[in-house]
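Hey L., structure's done. Input below.
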Amino acid sequence: PGNYTSNRQHRRDLHNTMVKTTTSQTEELLSRRLRFGARFLTRNGRDALRELHGFYFAVDHSITVYEFKQFGKRAQALPLIQRGVYYHHIGRRKGRKITIKDLAIGQNLSFDTAPQPSLPDSIRQKPSVVLRVIDLDHNAKDNLMEDMQLSKKADHGFSNQEIQDLKVFREVQGALQERLKKRGVRTVTSLGHHFRRIDQSGDGVLNKSELREALRENRMDVSPQQFESVWRILDQNEDGVLDYGEFMRTFIGEMSEYRKALVRKAYDKLDPNRTGSIKLSDMRKFYNARKHPKVVSGSASEEEMLNSFLDSFSHCQNPRNVQYVEFEEYYEGMSIDVARDDDFANILKNSWGI
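Output:
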């Protein structure tokens, strides 16, 4: 008993001193971390709706990513990207280490799928996976960067080449978006349908002539110089094909992550199990046109606006179901005509009660 008391007292004294054990030092180092929310960039609805949370550890610049799933009242974190130091797998940053400066809302992180056995099979089918950062505590990031003695200037991490790429993209987007006014929904959904129809293999990539023809058919043709400029930037591995989702995001632009979060929230209401597919009949049941401007002004009835909305999905691959990518494309097109975030949010809230 005497020895037990002595050992217990020793542990208490150690705890009360400033001496740190190896374990406590490790815990302190690991506590210097930054949490961020993310999503997969993919056309697979089930994968696009996965709730991802990542952690960046300042001690060794390592990253890990988990998927959070809700099982009734219990939540579970499932590891997807194992903790490690990573380098961008594709794009202009290929080969560059992923650091805290890469963590900003709207930024992409690319990983090699081969060493990640916990990724869904649908994601592992491709050699690379891209995660989009959608949520971040900027104050926590600033504090951690200060602790790491890093400058906050230009913390987006863009290289000069990437800045030049962005200028090209914005020039093309500016020219096209002016032509898309008042027909954004029709054009974006039509383009999406066109791409999926001619993508016979289902791998999500098309060649240069197919993409150029799709733009022409939808009255979105750009000058040969602009098209070639964008193609050279995107086709960096020079294999002659491009992911048409990335192609659309580049030529048309895309709505902000704030708006995309509202769209996912509306879809989640219709698809609580996050299958990535909902019934058109459920959309009819839950869509509320009562506060639509045309209904409020008396120029159209609720039934007319409901049918007009549902007609926008007549091109869907399955006429009775709407995939998440098709739902998002509708609001991607609408977003072009809605300048203010508050107005866009009100449209979603009034339509779906979110």
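The mean pLDDT is 83. The first strand starts at residue 33 and ends at 40.

-- N.
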